[in-house]
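From the thread on structure requests for the teaching lab: each student submitted one protein with a one-line request. Submission from student K.M.:

"Model Radical SAM protein from Streptomyces tuirus, tokens only."
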Amino acid sequence: MALTSSDIARIRADRGSSALLFLTDRCPVECAHCSVGSLRSGPGIADWPRFTSLVAGLAAHRRIRVVAISGGDPFAERRGLSHAVRELSAAGKQLVLHTSGFFGAAGWAQAVLRRSETVVLSTDRHHRARLPDEVWLAAARLIRACGAWLVVQSIDEDADQAAELLRRAFGRGWAAWAEIVRQPGLPHGRGADWYRPVHASSGERCALVGTPVVRYDGTVTACCNETVITGGGPDRLRRKAATAGELHSALDSLDDDPVLWAIGAAGPAALRPGGGPDGICAQCWRVLEHGTGSPAFTTALRGLREGAHDL
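Reply posted by the TA:
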């Protein structure tokens, strides 16, 4: 069943019901604004037994209904992507793939695309400077031919370019099987040279802190912040896993953390008022790096969470 962007947002907001598999740091497109700094020569899956154990852990996790697969570009890891999609779809997980579309019309990609509910295909001025339109258009048409819903993701100011590409690919009726999602440029990785953090209001909560990321090397993070995924930010946002059992323990540990729950439920400013008008991620990091008070306060947060579950 196809998942639109609003479907995906709703599922991600349901704490613990989705996860992201960060498959590789490799990407042959090497966009100037890449938020994780991916390169053609970037690291990828080096420990195959560990990777397959992590995939098995995701497949066996009962609460997780949707698994997104990203990177880098996951299509740069043909063996790992094919294995992950096959195992996760066989376990009944709904799959959302993120890609630049560099694979074009490659025949091997069809088996992957046919098992996916949705493909998030990026385009903007930076992508187009590195990837010919003809390759992107071939990928978009292949995604459609394989039956996946197409979400075209573009930075705000380039959304008109995305619409023009969709018209070239499918004609005026493209909205019957595709949509465009605008987003601000992300100030992480090489994107830090192009964009500044988006300011958050004092009462803003983080809807993504309950959507864990499982990295191919066994790092498990509490959210999808690109700096955290690539090793920055507070250690409290990270766990390690090498087996399916360790992955379940890591996911349970992050889900059980009362401070992370409170950041998702009420926002970081509710735990540590004050500070500058910076992004919600910076507010979250201040909470986690400087602490939230006494153990009694953490115990109280846990009690609040348990009470919320009983409502």
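TA comment: The mean pLDDT is 91. The CA atoms of residues 155 and 183 lie 5 Å apart.
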